[in-house]
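Predicting holo structure, coenzyme A bound.
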Amino acid sequence: MEIQIDKPRSPEDWRAIRELCGRTAEEGRGIEAARWPFFSEFWVGPYEKLLPEWTYAAREGPIVIGYLTGCPDTPRFERKRLLLHRWPLFVKALLGFYPRNEDTRRFIRRFLGLEKTLESRFPRQDRLRLLSIYPAHLHVNVDAALRGRGVGQKLMGAFIEDLRKAGVPGAHLVCGERPVGFYKRLRFDVLIRVETPPAGVLYVMGRSL
Ligand SMILES: CC(C)(COP(=O)(O)OP(=O)(O)OC[C@H]1O[C@@H](n2cnc3c(N)ncnc32)[C@H](O)[C@@H]1OP(=O)(O)O)[C@@H](O)C(=O)NCCC(=O)NCCS
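Done. Tokens:
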């Protein structure tokens, strides 16, 4: 069956994207279903709430088999996300709205500045420079059973085309070791490599458009 790329249209589409987020988390290995509600709210919630028009769904027939959440202007998105998503999520996590687990505890520690985030490891000037060259960012995930069939490439193609139309000069992303080859194939370069023990290594990759 042919693969279609379009925008999420309904609450069911967003539910499917959130489920896929849980099933493809941690470099595609997936996480246990008990972690999905908070995890997907953290990763998908801000895009659904703040700029749904920059999320893409890949469908085979009616089934969502992959998605890309993106944004053309990361600094603007981060400001809105802090106010309209992270603060409310912090309150909900504190009040026990989500089952307590390591995800919620890490989020609370980081929100309070008690634990370093990836961003906080970089000098502010370096980060601002990177964001001025590659202001857009993205996350892309494909159902494990359907990888290697060009779905990820199609999602990236749709996003990059829209970024170009909007006059955005570049895009960046953060990933682990496994998908680096995929992004290189799509002409992203490794900009920064960060050791993040015990989890491993993270890469910041970017591409001018
Ligand atoms: C990374 C991911 C999105 C790629 O999607 P995909 O649909 O499997 O990739 P495609 O089939 O579109 O691959 C496009 C090209 O990249 C290559 N490629 C894909 N994954 C690759 C990898 N991990 N390493 C090297 N090359 C890779 C493909 O061989 C293909 O090359 P070709 O055009 O020469 O045939 C998908 O594998 C995935 O969801 N992985 C788990 C979650 C994840 O890591 N997401 C990224 C989070 S930052």
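The chain has a mean pLDDT of 95.
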